[in-house]
Amino acid sequence: MGEPLPTDLPAVSLADYAERARTVLPPDVWDYVDGGSAAEVTVAANRGALDRVAVLPRVLRGVDTVDLGTRLLGRPYAMPVGVAPMAYQRLVHPDGEVGLASAAGTAGIPYLASTLGSTPVEEVTAVGAEVWFQLYWLRDRALVGDLLARVVAAGCRALVVTVDVPVLGRRPRDLRNAFRLPDDVVAANLPDGRDALAHSGAPGVSAIAAHTAASFAPALRWADLAWLRERVDLPLVVKGVLDPRDAVEAVRIGADAVVVSNHGGRQLDGAPASVTMLPEVVDAVGDRCQVLLDSGIRGGTDVLRALALGAAGVLLGRPLLWALAAGGERGARDALALLAVELTDALTLAGCADPAAAAELRTLGP
């Protein structure tokens, strides 16, 4: 294994932040961030499948500078990356959602604020970043309507509906740790954010899973998304799609983008790696909506792989929580700057002057 990397040296890959985060986080919080569902087969599959995607570089293309700029949902961004929606970011550092959103704003990329954020969405948008709001469907539709009104009033640029969490996946690490939220971390966007369920530990029980089961509606249907599409005049993104048939249905109800995702291996264990299904989803929707990828992205080479397979961009999750844990907002800014360097190198070596050119590359695998 070798000696741990010194934490006072600059990180040279996003993986460096994982090691640093593990040294500063309580073990149960590390497990909550790092862990997946059941036997964590899908967690491993995400990484393995990405590693099996080989990109055929082009040569003699005259590329000496790379422009990382792209357009997602019709808006310009500095690179084809967004910050994935992740709950309770103040668990890992006091800067929490505000710090990570500020880092995203500095990087010129969208920040996806979670329904289960530990900072109210109004405080997140106040930092000036481009914020998309990720919605979990609540049991009380009136509360969904109230939350949508807040999201629009706060100035969010898009609505991202997560559709792969009818119930929270069974996560053994959290069960063994009897994981619960500390008293100072709450679901700040929900009226019952201080619900005792999320803060009460018991052996063999995940308090977060209990709170989620009480709050979320398990029987979400396409008709609910159609209702949402009619109600909100924002770009609509459907996150958590793996089957191309579901992607086609999302387009039918008016989605502007879909996110091919298995929730980072935290929902149905044994589901395929997200990148494995990406080409089929891209083929199924054609040019009728954009396709994004998340789950397992760990650096610039992975972004290149996704672009070459037809994605418009990716959502980056755990590495940014690691960076936030290790260094707060500054750590997250450094991680995103490092990702830009990695992606620039990857595109240059592949003979691509911009992200659009990567779509013309051939791939082998996954």
Automatic annotation (TrEMBL):
<comment type="similarity">
    <text>Belongs to the FMN-dependent alpha-hydroxy acid dehydrogenase family.</text>
</comment>
<feature type="binding site">
    <location>
        <position position="32"/>
    </location>
    <ligand>
        <name>glyoxylate</name>
    </ligand>
</feature>
<feature type="binding site">
    <location>
        <begin position="85"/>
        <end position="87"/>
    </location>
    <ligand>
        <name>FMN</name>
    </ligand>
</feature>
<feature type="binding site">
    <location>
        <position position="261"/>
    </location>
    <ligand>
        <name>FMN</name>
    </ligand>
</feature>
<dbReference type="GO" id="GO:0010181">
    <property type="term" value="F:FMN binding"/>
</dbReference>
<dbReference type="InterPro" id="IPR012133">
    <property type="entry name" value="Alpha-hydoxy_acid_DH_FMN"/>
</dbReference>
<dbReference type="InterPro" id="IPR037396">
    <property type="entry name" value="FMN_HAD"/>
</dbReference>
<dbReference type="Pfam" id="PF01070">
    <property type="entry name" value="FMN_dh"/>
</dbReference>
<feature type="domain" description="FMN hydroxy acid dehydrogenase">
    <location>
        <begin position="6"/>
        <end position="366"/>
    </location>
</feature>
<feature type="binding site">
    <location>
        <position position="239"/>
    </location>
    <ligand>
        <name>FMN</name>
    </ligand>
</feature>
<keyword id="KW-0288">FMN</keyword>
<dbReference type="GO" id="GO:0016614">
    <property type="term" value="F:oxidoreductase activity, acting on CH-OH group of donors"/>
</dbReference>
<keyword id="KW-0285">Flavoprotein</keyword>
<feature type="binding site">
    <location>
        <position position="134"/>
    </location>
    <ligand>
        <name>FMN</name>
    </ligand>
</feature>
<dbReference type="InterPro" id="IPR013785">
    <property type="entry name" value="Aldolase_TIM"/>
</dbReference>
<feature type="binding site">
    <location>
        <begin position="317"/>
        <end position="318"/>
    </location>
    <ligand>
        <name>FMN</name>
    </ligand>
</feature>
<feature type="binding site">
    <location>
        <position position="114"/>
    </location>
    <ligand>
        <name>FMN</name>
    </ligand>
</feature>
<feature type="active site" description="Proton acceptor">
    <location>
        <position position="263"/>
    </location>
</feature>
<feature type="binding site">
    <location>
        <position position="171"/>
    </location>
    <ligand>
        <name>glyoxylate</name>
    </ligand>
</feature>
<feature type="binding site">
    <location>
        <position position="266"/>
    </location>
    <ligand>
        <name>glyoxylate</name>
    </ligand>
</feature>
<dbReference type="InterPro" id="IPR008259">
    <property type="entry name" value="FMN_hydac_DH_AS"/>
</dbReference>
<feature type="binding site">
    <location>
        <position position="263"/>
    </location>
    <ligand>
        <name>glyoxylate</name>
    </ligand>
</feature>
<feature type="binding site">
    <location>
        <begin position="294"/>
        <end position="298"/>
    </location>
    <ligand>
        <name>FMN</name>
    </ligand>
</feature>
<keyword id="KW-0560">Oxidoreductase</keyword>
<feature type="binding site">
    <location>
        <position position="136"/>
    </location>
    <ligand>
        <name>glyoxylate</name>
    </ligand>
</feature>
<protein>
    <submittedName>
        <fullName>4-hydroxymandelate oxidase</fullName>
    </submittedName>
</protein>
<dbReference type="InterPro" id="IPR000262">
    <property type="entry name" value="FMN-dep_DH"/>
</dbReference>
<feature type="binding site">
    <location>
        <position position="162"/>
    </location>
    <ligand>
        <name>FMN</name>
    </ligand>
</feature>
